[in-house]
Amino acid sequence: MKLARYFRSSVFLCILVGFLVLSGCTTTGTTASATSSLQDSIKYVFYFIGDGMGSAQIHLTEAYLASVKEGYNDNKPESEKTEDLIFTQFPAMGMITTYCANRFITDSAAAGTALACGEKTMTEVVSLKQDKQTRLNTIAERAKAKGMKVGIVTSVGIDHATPAVFYAHEPDRDNYYNIGVQLANSDFDYFAGGSLHQPTPPRARMRRRGEISDANAVEPKSSYEVAADNGFKIVTSREELSTCKPGERVIAYNKSEEGMNQLTPEIDRPDNCMSLAEFTEKGINLLDNNQGFFMMVEGGQVDYACHDKDTVTAINEILAFDEAIDKAMDFYKEHPDETLIVVTADHETGGLTMGNGLSEYSTSFEILKNQNMSYAAFKDNVWSKYTSGQWGGVEDNIPDALKTDIENAFGLVYDKLNDYEKDLLEDAYDKGMSSAKRVRVNIHEYSQEDKLLYSDNDPLSITLVGILAEKAGIGWTTFAHTGIPVEVHAIGSGSEIFNGFYDNTDVPKKMAKLIGIELGN
What are the φ/ψ torsions at residue 48 (nearest 5 degrees)? Predict the structure, then answer.
């Protein structure tokens, strides 16, 4: 009996396997045919990368939007407790791992290389193999070789790690001059965002400062000069960018932000500075052509804000990123069968959580609307007034004028804080003042606790954003990156292949397959 049952089971198993093999052949043939068809139809590719943007950052932003809506209350049904971002409504959704070749927790250079080249590399390395010498092809370079126009847009410096991995090949992401020269010598069509970190070579800077003298040496050109020699039009204002026409190769940044190497954080951005969405919209206008285009857009300052544990600034950066995606969606609606939009992140930053040890199950996201400037703006423009003033030592408490400035910037009323929060602020005040005056104080001498509380940030400013986050029911675990998987969202022809759980190196491979190019790495 047992043998008969075993025989029947074996026959059934063989039939099932045969059926699956035949089905697989049929499906493979169908998929190959469909992919071939898509390769002929997809002409316009948008690749959005939110630097440091984890799942918590995305869904906290949606929860915040819901919390500040008129009439919101905590008794509404769950379906009404979020206000959707544009990209979270895309039909395809996946998750990707983010580890790099030598660490579980990656940096942006290695993660960006994986997203641009489809191969793991070491931290700090820009689009080179793990030997730090062998060049990797990037999806942007391969798209250009196919005849598509290429644009690179970011809210940080256009020579920073994530944008750089699409056009440069360097063993060290901090080789900014070399990266800038590679940008200038590239055959790409549009670069926009923050200004270059180091447009002149280090030797030239040293000579200018009188640190070295070599009268006979030929002064190397700046990367901007090299770019101009290669036909790039360099524009530094909204008015100048508006005059650019399709067919022109353009490098664009805000003149007022030159030297900042980034856009002004969205929460602080003045009206005269172009936004990420504006750079994206103009890029679409300049790149649009019958051969198609590839555009990478990075929301780079999500990462910066999360390194500072600055919740409100991070939310504003994600909203600015979503506005840029909205510009791509406007284009998609006009060309739905020819456009692919993919949104992902390189890694998560900050270890953000919705919930913390003090708030338990309660949240008060609506209080976040009381913050009206970034951590960086408060530190540089408000707190700096006090660090340059008089300080009598640890016996001095926070002055009333500073308490007023804190209330105006963060909505935190000093007299309404609990004793624990006041102690945190007073200690941070003493620590910040002692650092500014180069005085060591016994209560804090750069201890392990200091590293956990402040890292290398300004103690008072970082404590203020921390208290606000804690009151809102938000937690942060690190000032650095984490190794958790991040989301992928996609819409357009063939976007269903981005569903599922896979590695970050698979994202450009899937994209390359859809647009009919070989990465060749």
Answer: -100, 130
